[in-house]
Amino acid sequence: MMPEPAPTVAQLLAFYLEAGVDCALMDEPVNRLLDDDIGLHPPAEAAPKRPPLTGMPTPAPRPAPTRTEVAPDVAVAAAREAARTAPTLDALRGMLESFDGCALKGTATRLVFSDGNPQARIMFVGEAPGRDEDIEGLPFVGRSGKLLDLMLKAIGLDRTTAYIANVIPWRPPGNRTPTPQETQICLPFIQRQIELVNPDILVTLGNPSTQTLLQTRDGIMKSRGRWVDYDTGSRKIRAIATFHPAYLLRSPSYKRLTWMDLRSVAKALEAAK
Questions:
Q1: Neighbours of 204 (CB within 10 A)
Q2: Cα(118)–Cα(273) distance, rounded to whole angstroms?
Q3: What is the pTM of this model?
């Protein structure tokens, strides 16, 4: 049996990226073999053990401290209450900064709240931040962000005339898919964000944000391009789904369908003037 060839550097880097290792801890490599704290020196001679005292009670071992986690239903209720009472977008952002009910906050670099014009007539909502967004604290700034900018430009928009956010405001580790529990905890905040922006048109980007916000079980292939009403509780907003820019980078053949969706959005904006 022939042994497998050693992986190349490119293959190793691809493996680490897939595993979620995409950030270096230090600018320079560290030779751990030179570290005095890793036990390379011969151990000192162990001191002789004393025999246990007789007739004395043996204390019970103390349990290791455990991390206190908020129960999911409690976290969802707290998120709903906090989001409901936010009078402005700035107040909502401040509440998210201090909210500890979602474990994603502890693994992310920073909060990714929004970008663009909060007075815009159109709002785009994706799923969750990626690595570039986590570093800069803004949604859609990586490769998918550059494509989104081109999509906006194609219908006469840019980040000064559109508002952009995500359902999840913190990056999941390794860009993994957010769990249903994490989505439900963050949902009240994005719902309140949409209500405060109060756009004329809401565009959901990709399957997760579409299913979460438009309350559908249909996949993006079936739900894209269809106009529905998004109810904020005080107003109904016209909403439409299309493909996420990250998906278009992997499957460029769907750009034609996305262009059809964008043309429909442009017509709706013109009609709503």
A1: 29
A2: 18
A3: 0.76
Measured distance CA(165)–CA(192) in Å, rounded: 12
Q: Which of 130, 191, 122, 134 is nearest to 163 (CA)?
A: 122
**Burial (CB count within 10 angstroms: exposed 0-12, middle 13-18, buried 19+), residue 235:** exposed
Sign of CA dihedral 116, 110, 20, 16: positive
Instruction: Write down the residue that tokens 């922006």 correspond to.
Output: 197
Q: What is the DSSP letter of 184?
A: H
Q: Give me the amino acid identity at 163.
A: Y
Position 7 scores a pLDDT of 73
User: Could you tell me which of 181, 250, 240 has the C-alpha nearest to residue 214?
Assistant: 240
Query: Between β-strands 228-231 and 122-126, what pairing exists: parallel, antiparallel or unpaired?
Result: unpaired
- The pLDDT of residue 37: 45
For the packed helices 180-197 and 207-214, what is the interaxial angle rounded to 10 degrees?
A: 70
Q: Quick check: 120 pLDDT over 70?
A: yes
| Per-residue pLDDT, 60 | 53
Distance of CA 231 to the CA centre of its chain: 24
What is the Cα–Cα distance from 38 to 185, expressed in whole angstroms? 41
Smallest CA-to-CA distance from 188 within 69, 91, 96, 70 is with 96
Per-residue pLDDT of 46-86, as tens digits, reads 445 555 545 545 555 554 444 456 788 899 999 999 999 99
Tokens 């989104």 correspond to 148
Burial (Cβ within 10 Å: 0-12, 13-18, ≥19) of residue 171: buried
Q: Could you give phi then psi for residue 268, rounded to 5 degrees?
A: -65, -40
* pLDDT at 41 (0 to 100): 47
Q: Is residue 93 predicted with pLDDT exceeding 70?
A: yes
